[in-house]
Design a protein that fits this description.
single chain, alpha+beta, 6-stranded antiparallel sheet
């Protein structure tokens, strides 16, 4: 490591000494075979001998100094921020403007979609509660609000008669849908009662003889579905009796083999609340499923209701259809603008990354030819702008989210894509606002946070790896031992959530008080387990984590006072002390590709030296004096 540091320091010294014009730097061995481009041509053997004796032709020295100075200015301009580039060449900061416009458009789009998504999710959730009251027997309002710890047990059935009565109650509520306060209709065009499907999932054989501890079992699950059709003058005149109906269809339910059952039907409705000045109401079809879950075979059949919403194209008031076209056109224009601006941002950032890599390879070759050394890994990484990578990722997410949003607003997708669209747009907007930190980083005061996180990142990662291993051990141990007895440890996920909450001081007393065990050993073990975990993570792990961040912050403050450490690339660039507003950068070509094309067409371009070569009697150097053995035609 010491040799590496010494070697790096010597490289920086070579670069700085060469910038001052020291003759000792000309003793390096240079690679052979270079064309006459913007780089320095190799030295011949005679030139090397002359360099060792301190004798060198002035045109040759001016060419080398010109190439070094040009490369420094090129690199310094590349690492300037948009404000400095504006001062240097008066180049319009179009990438910065694109990012500002993107932030505004994406945020507006997010707010509109979040409002619609909230209305959609809240409306579908309220309808699910309504359907639970209409179609679930003995449904209690206490079941609607999840309480912690829960004040009641699971909603379940315990008798066979309850199973049939629950089906009868659901059918009765469905066939009397007009009695509901909500404006619900059947799915048929003439509003006739649609079919109800009852699906039974049973083991092929499942007979239990508990009195002599024997059974007959075949674990193959068979699915049986029947359509229950309603006729007002037929089979349901005296009431609905699902048990009798199943017997007439020769379907027998063996509850010792019944895994689960589904009762499915659908209703339609219109959401008038969604209507606005230029927005029409939303039309929905709810596919309702009542689920009887007996998979545990513990004498408790869990009962639940699921209502999957599907948006439909409304056929309503003509005025609202016209207004809907206006609203749809405005939303489409916004989505297209967002996709367009994100596409432009994606192209510009991709081009910047590509150009940075070209400049990196050019710099690597320059260091090899000029100094005979390789550019360090730290110097190479400076050409990879992770901000641009983050911007490219958020551009892709927003483009995909905007495309899905447009399809949702055109009623092309069902409700499942609302969540996917929310994830794409939400994550993309999160990264967009993170990108604002890049521009705040141009100011010294705001850059402290970014530099502190960057400095502490390697140590934090190593620290978290060790902490996660300890955390995983406590998680598995708690799940195994306390899972059957403590509701916070019922699963691996809830155990991890409980321990993470304990680290942050959440519900400490509740976790201790809920740990009630019949076994005295488990009671004491639970106390020791919790006390050990809290003491270790709160007083040790968190304190060490904070100390790592504070150590990085103190280091950054010292860097601001004493100067930041420089890589070989930064040491090379730091020799150039020209200010951005000095005007020297305006003489450099903007497009390196066009510059190289001109070099290939005409090798003997005249290069002005100005103050770099005061001894020249003219402002140009002939091509044969610069290119050496290269013959120009």
């Amino acid at each position: 490591m010491a040799d590496k540091i010494e070697n790096k320091g010597s490289t920086n010294a070579i670069i700085e000494d060469r910038a001052r014009g020291s003759n000792s730097l000309r003793t390096h061995t240079w690679s052979q075979g270079s064309e006459c481009e913007d780089e320095v041509s190799p030295l011949t053997n005679d030139d090397t001998i002359n360099a060792r004796t301190g004798i060198m032709n002035q045109p040759r020295y001016d060419a080398i100094a010109y190439a070094e100075d040009k490369m420094r200015r090129k690199l310094k301009f590349f690492f300037m921020n948009p404000i400095e580039k504006w001062e240097a060449r008066k180049r319009f900061p179009y990438k910065f403007i694109v990012q500002v416009v993107k932030i505004i458009l994406v945020t507006v789009q997010l707010c509109l979609f979040a409002h619609n998504n909230y209305i959609h999710v809240n409306y579908t959730w309220d309808n699910r509660i309504t359907f639970s009251h209409l179609f679930l027997k003995d449904w209690d309002a206490d079941q609607e609000v999840p309480a912690y710890p829960p004040a009641h047990g699971p909603f379940a059935l315990y008798r066979q008669d309850d199973f049939y009565e629950t089906i009868d109650y659901a059918l009765q509520g469905y066939y009397n849908l007009s009695n509901a306060i909500g404006s619900y209709s059947y799915t048929a065009e003439d509003n006739s009662v649609g079919p109800v499907v009852l699906c039974l999932y049973q083991y092929k054989e499942g007979i239990i003889f508990g009195f002599n501890e024997s059974y007959i079992f075949n674990n193959k699950v068979e699915r049986t579905c029947i359509n229950i059709n309603h006729t007002f003058g037929g089979e349901f005149r005296d009431g609905i009796h699902s048990k009798k109906l199943l017997e007439e269809k020769n379907i027998r339910i063996n509850f010792s083999a019944l895994v689960k059952a589904h009762l499915k039907f659908a209703v339609k409705t219109v959401n008038l609340k969604a209507a606005g000045p230029i927005t029409p109401p939303d039309c929905y079809q709810f596919n309702i499923k009542i689920i009887f879950d007996n998979s545990d075979f513990d004498g408790q059949m869990l009962l639940s209701l699921d209502a999957e919403p599907k948006r439909l194209v409304c056929k309503g008031d003509i005025q609202y259809i016209t207004d809907n076209q206006i609203d749809s056109a405005l939303r489409t224009i916004l989505n297209l603008f967002v996709i367009l601006i994100c596409g432009i941002s994606l192209i510009l950032c991709s081009r910047s990354i590509y150009r940075a890599q070209l400049l990196k390879f050019e710099t690597i070759n320059f260091f090899k030819r000029t100094y005979g050394t390789n550019l360090s890994l730290e110097g190479r990484l400076e050409f990879l702008n992770f901000w641009y990578i983050m911007i490219i990722i958020n551009d892709l997410l927003i483009i995909m989210g905007s495309a899905i949003k447009e399809q949702i607003e055109r009623k092309s997708f069902d409700s499942d894509h609302w969540n996917i669209c929310s994830i794409f747009l939400g994550t993309g907007n999160l990264l967009v606002w993170f990108g604002v930190l890049r521009y705040l980083g141009f100011f010294k005061t705001y850059n402290v946070v970014i530099l502190t996180l960057k400095k502490a990142a390697p140590k934090v990662v190593r620290f978290l790896i060790c902490a996660i291993l300890i955390y995983a051990g406590f998680t598995f141990c708690g799940w195994l031992i306390f899972g059957p007895y403590h509701m916070k440890f019922r699963s691996l996920a809830t155990t991890s959530e409980c321990l993470f909450a304990l680290i942050n001081g959440d519900e400490l007393y509740a976790t201790f008080s809920m740990a009630s065990f019949k076994s005295q050993i488990l009671w004491w073990y639970c106390r020791i387990y919790l006390y050990s975990f809290l003491s270790l993570f709160i007083y040790v792990v968190l304190s060490l984590f904070i100390s790592i961040i504070m150590d990085a912050y103190d280091t950054i403050k010292l860097y601001y006072r004493d100067g930041f450490p420089k890589s070989d690339l930064q040491a090379f660039i730091s020799v150039c002390t020209d200010e951005a507003s000095s005007g020297v950068f305006s003489q450099e070509p903007d497009d390196p590709t066009w510059n190289k094309l001109l070099d290939r067409v005409c090798c003997c371009r005249k290069r002005p030296y100005g103050s770099l070569s005061q001894s020249n009697d003219s402002s140009s150097v002939k091509c044969d004096e610069i290119c050496g053995n290269v013959v120009c035609i």
